[in-house]
Amino acid sequence: MIMMKRLWGVALLVPVMAVAQNKVSAEREAGMKADLAGQIDGMKKQAQVMVDSVFSFAELGFQEFETSKYLTAILEKEGFKIERGVAGIPTAWVASWGQGKPVISLGSDIDDIPQASNKPAVAWHDPIIEGAPGHGEGHNSGVPLNILAAIAVKKVMEREHLQGTLRLWPGVAEEEDGTKAHYVRAGLFKDVDICLFTHVGTNLGVSYGPSGSNAMISIEYMFKGESAHAAGAPWRGKSALDAVELMDVGWNFRREHLRLAQRSHYVITNGGDQPNVVPPNATVWYYLREADHPHVMDLWRIADNMAIAATLMTDTTYTSRLLGSAWSPFGNQPVAEDMYENIKKVGLPQWSEADEKLATSLQKELKVPVVGMAKKLSVMRPPREEPEGENNIGPMGGG
Q1: For the chain, domain boundaries
Q2: pLDDT digits (tens, 9 = 90+) for 306-336
Q3: Is the terminal CB of the chain with fewer CB neighbours within 10 Å at N or C?
């Protein structure tokens, strides 16, 4: 139900577009909003089916083939033109309808996370398939709701003869920071007037200015050494795995002297073939997060220095590969204020007993305060200015 309320907030922006085109009076604007709300209420079952269907596909980043096939088929049936493989990404697409300005872009993510398979509406870990991926961050909900919002808005635009273009796009491989920078580079947003991005949450909210989400770099360090028999002639070897481990140890010692705002994590994706062979190749994958672009770039510089130091200690070499990047979002104030006024009109749902039971059961399982579902709308506050050097700790950006 909270997803349907979030959907209303997106769709109700469109009458504002109509007023800007001098097409309707304030009274007619209110009528259009009521019409949109009624349409969306009438699509509850369709919303449930779409959200559950995407949940069932449970596809990892860059593997969202069934998800994209399903969602684009619905959009094509509703008259949207689909461009597939955008920015050279097989599972990426853009759905467009209408013509002219303004161009309103609706985005949300579609990938899931490894080993998060779980039965729906179960408040504890109970996987459908043990070890399989699953939608542990709610990425099954956003694009289905954007689609329903776009369908409702399209009907009103057709009836009122409103000019404008609707575009929908999926966040492919968001958990790996894999595609949005490529979208920008490919020009997907160059003529966009308003970009609205939605993500599942515990309340209805919108923000402007610096988002509080961190900038992030996803980078792979690949070390190359020399193989040898680990028992017969270990002195001949130059262990790439030693270099990886030394880099990781160095990074962990350095953590104490990094800003509190940083978050950094790594996994060794290649640690060699078998114990009796000195690994000639090894790879470690890092996520580097900081409050803003300059600080995350400094983390990257430090990580490069760690890699260089590891090669000097092991007589190996390294190369690196940037896999993804994301800078801190910056929201538009007039759009956010309009959205928030609509959120206040819509309000929170009336939660059922089953809703509350699921929420409180999950909160107990996670050992967090047991408060149930949100009873009061979150307040849209102005962005807080962070003095240089302050511990800017907020929600972590990226995947």
Answers
A1: 2-212+329-366, 215-326
A2: 999 999 999 999 999 999 999 888 889 999 9
A3: N
Phi-psi domain of 289 (left: phi exceeds 0; alpha: psi -120 through 50; beta: other): beta
In the numeric block, which tokens belong to residue 241? 């795995």
Which of 179, 219, 221 is closest to 88 using CA atoms? Answer: 179
Using CA atoms, how far apart are residues 114 and 60, in angstroms rounded to an integer?
Answer: 7
- In the chain, what are the helix, strand and coil shares in percent, each to the nearest 5? 40, 20, 40
Give the pLDDT confidence of 59-92 residue by residue, as tens digits: 999 999 999 999 999 999 999 999 999 999 999 9
Is CATH 3.60.15.10 the classification given to domain 215-326?
A: no
pTM: 0.86
User: Which of 140, 146, 51 has the alpha carbon at shortest distance from 105?
Assistant: 146
- Identify the CATH class of 2-212+329-366: alpha beta
CA–CA separation, 73 and 67 (whole Å): 10
